[in-house]
Amino acid sequence: MSNEGAAHHDSGSITTNHKTGKSLKAKVLCRVFSEDYERVKSNIFDPRGQTVQRWNRIFFMACLVSMFVDPLFFLVPSIDGNNMCLEDASALKISLTIIRSVVDAFYTAQIFVRFKTAYVAPSSRVFGRGELVIDSKKITLRYLSRGFWIDFFAAIPLPQLLIWVILPNFGGSTMARRKNRILFIIFFQYLPRFCLLFPLRSEIINASGGLTETAWAGATFNFMLFMLASHIAGACWYLLAIDRQEFCWRSVCDQEKPQCRYDFLDCHHVQDPGRDTWYNMANLTSLCDPNNANTPVQWGIYYNFETESIGSCKFFSKYFFCFWWGLNNLSDVCQNLVPATYIGEELFLIVVATIGLVLLALLIGNMLRYIQFTTIRLEKWRIKRIGTEQWMHHRHLPPELRQSIRTYDQYKWVTTRGVDEGALLRGLPKDLRREINRHICFDLVRRVPLFNQMDERTLDAICERLKPVLCTQDMFLVCQGDPVRDMFFIIRGHLESWTTNGGGTGFNLCRLGPSDFCGEELLTWALDLRPNIILPSSTRTVKAVKEVEAFSLAAEDLKFVAAQFRSLHSRELRHKFRFYSHQWRTWAACFIQSAWRRHKKLKEETKSREPKAGLAGSNGNLKPLRSFWEVYATELIESTRRDENDQAGSASNAVNTVQKPVDLDFSVDY
Hints:
single chain; four-stranded antiparallel sheet; elongated; disordered C terminus
C-alpha cells in the first residue's frame, strides 16, 4: 500500500509539474520583450516594429484622403439651369463612391491590424520599454473594450449606402429633406474619422522617438488642417446655398398652388403633365433674383451663389469657387459677410468664424515656431558676437586683432552653422562616436600618405581621436622653438612652413597642401617607449596662407596610439615618414649641399696640389680619387646599415633612427 501510495504521489507530482510547466510556458509566451520579439514565432505584430510603423504612415495618408473626399458628397446636388430643377451629378456620384470605397478598405484593414498588434503591459512600464503582450485573446479583449467600435463605425460605407440605397427609397420626400439627412449622416461619421487622425499622428511620432515632431512638420500639419477646414466650409456653404435656392422656389410655388407641386422642383419630374404649364406661368428666375426687391427670401451670405450661377457650373468650377469662399472667409474670420436673419445661417457663420480664428492662430503660431527654429542658432551667434564686441572694446584690443577675431568667428559660423560638434558627439554612445568619426575622417586620413598603408584598427583608433581645426588667413599653427602639442593633417587649404637660420630671416620656405602634415616632431616623441613628459620643440614655423580645414591629433592621443599599436614602429613607416616629411627633405637637402661643398673644397685642394701629386705619381704611390656620388652612396649605405643594426639591438634605438639630424652651420667655411 505504501508503494502504491508513493507511486500515486509520484504520478500526481508529475501531473502537477506538467501542468505547472504548461502554465509557466503559457505565461512566458504571453509576454515578451521587444528585443526578443523576433525569436518568438508568432503572427502578432510588434507595435514598435517597422511593419506597424510603415502601416501607420500608409493609413494616416488614407485618413487624410478620406477627410477630403467626404465633403465632396455635398457637391452632388446641382441645378439644371434650363429647367430650373434640382438633380444629382451622376458622374461625380460614381467617382466619389469608388474613391470612398477604396479608402474604406484601409479602415477595414486597420481593424484587422489592430486585432493582430501586441500592446505593452501596463504593469511592466516601471522601468524600460516594458513587455509586449502577444496573447491573441488578451489583445482581442483589450481592443474590443477600447477602440474597436469607433474603428468599426468609421469603416462603415455610410455615404454610399445613403446615396445608392436609402435615399432612393424615400418616396415623396423633398430634396431639402434628403440634403439634411446627407449633411447629418456624413458629419455623424466624419467627426470620428477626424478624431482618429490625432492619436494616429501621436503614435507615429512616439514610435520614431519624437524626431519627426519638428517645427516645419507641425506647421505643415496645421496648414493642412486650415486647407481642410476651408474645403469643408466651402462644401457646406454650397449645400446650404442649394437649400436656400430650393426654399426660394418652394416659396414661389406656395404662391401658385394648386397649379404647383413640390415634385416639380425635382428634375425626375420634368416630364410630368402640368409641369411645363406651371413653369411657363411661374417666373422663378426673376422672383428668386437676389437683386429683386420682391424676392420671397433673404439671400444673405448666398448672394454670390445665385448671381454667379454656381449650382449649374461644372464640377471643377464650382469646387474651386466653394474652396475659395471657405479659404477667404476663414482667413478674415467672416468679416466681410452679412448674414440674413435666419438662425441656421447665423450659427453657420459663428462656427466658421470660430474655427477660422482657432486654426489661423495655430497656423501662425507654428509658422513663427518654424521661423524661430530655423533662426535660433543665428540669433545665438549674433548674441555671442555682440558679447565678443563688447569684450574687445572693454579690453581695448587693437583693430588688427579685433579684425582677426571677427574673421575667425565668421569663418567658423560658415563652416559649422553654429553647431557645436564636440558637444554633440559627447552626448552620444562611444560606439556611435566611433562610427561617426570613421565616416567623417576615415577617407580623409587615407589620403595622407603616412597612413594609407595602415590597417583599419590603427586608422580607427586615430580617427576616434582626431579633432577638427579651422584656421583663418595668417594664423600661426606653431612657431619655431615652441613645444609641439598637436600634429596637423591638412584637408583643405595651404600652409607655409619655414625655418630660420639662427633666428634671422626666413629660410627654406615650403608650402603644404591637402594630404600633407606638419608637427612631425611629435611622432618621433610618441614612438619613444620611454616615459617622457617633455614635449619636443618645433623646428619650423607654420602659418595658414588662407582659410584652412585640418584635423589635429593631440600629443597624448598620439602617444596612446603608438603604445597600443605596434605597427607605428615598423621600418616601412619610418622610411615613409622620412620620404613625405618636409623637414626630412630639408635636412637631406642640407646634408647633400654640405657634402657637395666638402667635395668642391676637396676638389679645389686637389687641383692646387696637382703639381705635387704629379711628382708623387711618378713613383706610383697616389690612389685614384673617387667621385662625389660614390662617396655619397657609400655613406648612405653605411647609415642604413647602422639603422638596421640599431633596430635589431633595442627597441628604444628605433626611435633614434627617425630623430632629426644635427643641424649644419653653413656659416662655417669648410
